[in-house]
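Exercise 7.
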Amino acid sequence: GTEDENQDCQTIPVNNCRNVAKPNCRQIADEQCREVPNRECGRVPVKECRQVPGGCRKVSKPNCVSKPREVCQPIQRNVCRQIPSQQCEQVPKENCVPVEREVCETVPQQVCNNVPRQQCSDVPRQECTTVPREECNTVPREQCQQVPKQQCVDVLREQCSGAPR
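Solution. The predicted structure, written as tokens, is:
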């Protein structure tokens, strides 16, 4: 026979992948500071004096006493606080999805045809021949003798030619 090429196809599962950017975020805390006006106070000893009139001479003399007094001064104070925020960056990630794909391959295919061929077989047939036979009779003065004689007859028989059986 002859050979033709044929396609043999199958559906198989495969992964369809592509790179996608995925955000990767984390919490961070920023510190924010500023100067705030304030006052700082404390007790400071202050000398307080009074003139006390003197005796005979009428000369006054100072009488001083140390007394604590609260004194405040303006100052700048640094005040800081934590501010939470999120820091993100794009991270490449492979994203795969299962899909079905048809895969084909060329396969040789055998094509067969019926071809006539001659097939012979033995066929029994009958064949006849003349066989001599003796037949005797008592006949006065005659003597018989068999003389063989051949006699032919048409006999049908099968003969093969190029056609199949």
